[in-house]
């Protein structure tokens, strides 16, 4: 996986960082690359501050996609996939300590449940319920869509893809009472596969019609301003061994 996720314009940079889990695995679990120790997470946040990277909220991010001059010279968006409840004790206190907003991408079928979509690869963990998500919103964590069933979109037919995009937005907006405008493709899978050009175009049209303003992948980049396609934005996947300084200096 190419881990570059940096968008630049006239000296400006927008880095989109993608995390999953902060802290240690549960007692009956095992270590995977997606667990970032709290001390390492703090070092990443510290580097952003010391390196003069301004962490932006979702509104500032969306503004900057359309008008890059509205961004700080070095802007970072912090995103967390899947809605793990461990975020509340692992990541949230550190984000509040640094005064950093963030984004949580949630698959709606699993709100208040467990990560059974990763049963073969990751330890079982509880995911945030509706009360958790509403409280996170109040504390500066913007909850956005990660689809309905956390299935790779390239494995789905067009009607099912449309349902993943549309229903997840409807459910989140009803449950949180706010607009949902950003989508993160499960597994970073942007709906490729056979006939990928037509599928990509159809998926983009679905996202636009639904009212999404951006969608995030993994890998790729660096992207250049003006953004050629805000519905295929690369993110930098962050694990415990990521050399953040090196990645952000590319």
Index terms:
250 residues, single chain, alpha/beta, two-stranded parallel sheet, TIM Barrel
According to CATH, the homologous superfamily is Glycoside hydrolase/deacetylase
How many helices? 8
Low-confidence stretches: none
Give the structural class: alpha/beta
Number of strands: 12
Query: What is the H/E string?
Result: EEEEHEHEHHEHEHEHEEEH
The count of domains is 1
Largest sheet composition? 8 strands, mixed
Compact overview of the structure:
By secondary structure, the chain is an alpha/beta fold.
Compile the SSE list and pairings:
Blueprint: E1 6-9, E2 12-19, E3 21-22, E4 35-36, H1 38-50, E5 54-55, H2 58-66, E6 74-81, H3 87-90, H4 92-98, E7 102-106, H5 130-138, E8 141-145, H6 158-176, E9 182-184, H7 196-210, E10 214-216, E11 223-224, E12 236-237, H8 244-248
Parallel strand pairs: 1-11, 2-6, 2-12, 3-4, 5-6, 6-7, 7-8, 9-10
Antiparallel strand pairs: 1-2
Helix pairs in contact: 6-7
Report on this structure.
By secondary structure, the protein is an alpha/beta fold. It has a single domain, classed as TIM Barrel, CATH 3.20.20.370. It is built from eight helices and twelve strands. Strands 1, 2, 5, 6, 7, 8, 11 and 12 form an eight-stranded mixed β-sheet that branches. β5 (54-55), α2 (58-66) and β6 form a beta-alpha-beta unit. The longest helix is centred in the C-terminal third of the chain and has 19 residues, at 158-176. The model has no long low-confidence stretch (mean pLDDT 91).
């Amino acid at each position: 996986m190419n881990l570059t996720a940096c968008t630049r314009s006239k000296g400006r940079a927008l880095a989109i960082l993608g995390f999953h889990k902060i802290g240690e695995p549960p007692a009956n679990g095992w270590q995977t690359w997606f667990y970032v120790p709290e001390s390492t997470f703090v070092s990443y946040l510290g580097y952003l501050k010391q390196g003069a990277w301004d962490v932006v909220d979702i509104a500032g991010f969306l503004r900057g996609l359309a008008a890059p001059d509205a961004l700080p010279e070095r802007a970072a968006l912090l995103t967390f996939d899947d809605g793990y409840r461990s975020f509340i004790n692992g990541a949230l206190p550190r984000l509040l300590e640094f005064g950093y907003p963030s984004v949580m991408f949630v698959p709606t079928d699993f709100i208040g449940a467990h990560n059974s979509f990763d049963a073969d690869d990751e330890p079982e963990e509880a995911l945030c319920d509706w009360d958790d998500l509403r409280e996170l919103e109040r504390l500066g964590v913007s909850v956005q869509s990660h689809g309905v069933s956390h299935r790779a979109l390239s494995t789905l037919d067009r009607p099912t893809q449309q349902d993943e995009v549309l229903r997840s937005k409807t459910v989140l907006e009803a449950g949180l009472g706010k607009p949902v405008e950003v989508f993160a493709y499960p597994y970073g899978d942007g709906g490729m596969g056979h006939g990928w050009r037509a599928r990509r175009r159809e998926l983009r049209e679905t996202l636009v019609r639904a009212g999404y303003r951006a969608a995030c992948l993994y890998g790729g980049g660096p992207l250049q301003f003006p953004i050629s396609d805000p519905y295929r934005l690369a993110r930098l996947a962050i694990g415990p061994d990521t050399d953040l300084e090196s990645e952000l200096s590319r």
